[in-house]
Amino acid sequence: MTRILRIATRKSPLALWQSEHVAAALRAAHPDLQVELVPMSTRGDEVLDRSLAAIGGKGLFLKELELAMQRGDADCAVHSLKDVPMELEPGFALPAILARADYADAFISNTHDGIQSLPEGAVVGTSSLRRQAQLRALRPDLRLRDLRGNVNTRLAKLDAGDYDAIVLACAGLQRLGFEARIRRRLVAPDWLPAPAQGAVAVECRDDDPATTSLFAALDHAETRRCVEAERAMNRALHGSCHVPVAALATLDGTGLRLDGLVGSAADGRLVRAGAQGDAPDALGRQVAAQLLEQGAGDLLGL
Ligand SMILES: NCc1[nH]cc(CCC(=O)O)c1CC(=O)O
User: Fold this and answer.
1) What whole-number percentage of the chain has pLDDT above 90?
2) What is the pLDDT of residues 268-277, one digit of tens each?
3) Which of 18, 133, 232, 239 could form a disulfide with 245 if both were Cys (CB 3.0 to 4.6 A apart)?
4) Catalytic residue from among 32, 45, 49, 83
5) Ligand 1 contact via 284 beta carbon (within 6 Å)
6) Cα distance between residue 57 and residue 208, in whole Å
7) Where is the Porphobilinogen deaminase N-terminal domain (predicted)?
């Protein structure tokens, strides 16, 4: 009998793209498997009039999908890993982390080439405290305005003239065919992405070995090592995707390198740290300790 595997997914164009991407990889790895999407709405999608930081609560984009898995209405869920809380809900696991796409943030504008060439007092749209802190550090004069909604909505608000520029993740833009809108990739040393940005993860119940085993073929070991280091750093800072914490781990012949920063969205103060190592978890905790030594706790209100 062919097994049917149901993937719970949010309904945004990006979430659907990512879930289709996972479905295609699953079908390729398991030709007999019948894969279906179960599109659902989450609280993070529905509450658009307040910033995510203001709504608070972890896992705003996950809860409804997890309930569907617990009810047995879906076997797994697909997420942008950067939206997944550092501590998973008990009873769940991440059986696959797919190969990372572009990790960088993108500067997007119809009129300007980069952050430094924006005119004095220009209006930049982003609701991310991490992006706000880094913008303030580079350009204290900018006027930062909230910008919520899915990628397509945010681009439409830029085009409507509400902002001089906005900042979005390159990965989402590339996945949705908007690569041409990227005016500049924002990269180190000036700029770091969110922990796990650009990585897609599959979540399932941890008591479901039949589903878990299907995903072994999709897991990308190098990406997993990098995002584990980034998430371990954020976890040690008690971070979520709604705090001004940025991190990027890279792998080369000599091992892992992790760079992190913590900032203040209010005044643009930033503290930075970086180290090399082999064990992702220990490296993440080491860089977090260095950040705390330099005063990150004050910036995070710890
Ligand atoms: N918080 C929203 C979110 N979650 C994941 C992505 C796309 C990038 C990714 O896969 O990491 C985005 C949009 C954005 O930040 O521009």
Assistant:
1) 86
2) 999 999 999 9
3) 239
4) 83
5) no
6) 27
7) 5-211
